[in-house]
């Protein structure tokens, strides 16, 4: 298994998503975001009509191309995925954990300078992505209200008798979470982005307390591979006073599956986090609780900086040298200074 993992991580042939180069957005342009969001629905409908017309015009050519294409089996990766044995990861304990101090200390120069803040309509999430030309990093799931790309049909919708509860992607991997109830899950599977071949399966059940009731049973919320490291955010969706030891990030060394560190609790329950240089930018908040963005040291998991925000962070999306943050009721833009 370790050989497969090491080989998969070292692969350099993964397909990268081509991002369009955008002009640098000035602060004055952000004042028009509300207008752009209002127009995004009409623009989307017009584009949809144009796309449908083009699809009808080119349907004959598409059918011919399909006839000439080699046959593929949508379920080809399913048996391989079913054969994976989840690697059980041990929870190093409650609270902050560091396996050992790093031999060298990295210099931290990341600064996040707020350049935009404006209240949002709470329900205009898709308009925010469209107005700022940000990619939705999640796949659309059955029963989900969020828009997203269609999950490749080669990805199994169940694993070890557990249904697929959420899925997202980056340039190299597809991340899938499987669990017992909608949205929550403790099995994290990784598949190669270009081939959908299974890479590994990780079992985080030891990180989920059996004492908690539904809604307090923390799950894998987000994960990201960077080099030989895997960073995973786990949290539940209720008040910290009911179950305070949640909403943290864990760092895993993929060469031997050891836990290198675990942050303090109550730092990460946003839908995602961003890796910027030697730091991780994440966010935590909840009703009647303090809401912050956190800058985390990738070498130790320690908190370097915290930035107050008006409400719980939902999305933290980097675009060029700017960080777009959407909280429950407020949109922010931060200039990334390194």
From TrEMBL:
Chain intervals for the UniProt region annotation (Disordered): 14-81
SUPFAM superfamilies listed in its UniProt record: Quinoprotein alcohol dehydrogenase-like
Entry superkingdom: Bacteria
Family matches, as Gene3D superfamilies: YVTN repeat-like/Quinoprotein amine dehydrogenase
Biased composition (Acidic residues): 65-74
Protein name: Uncharacterized protein
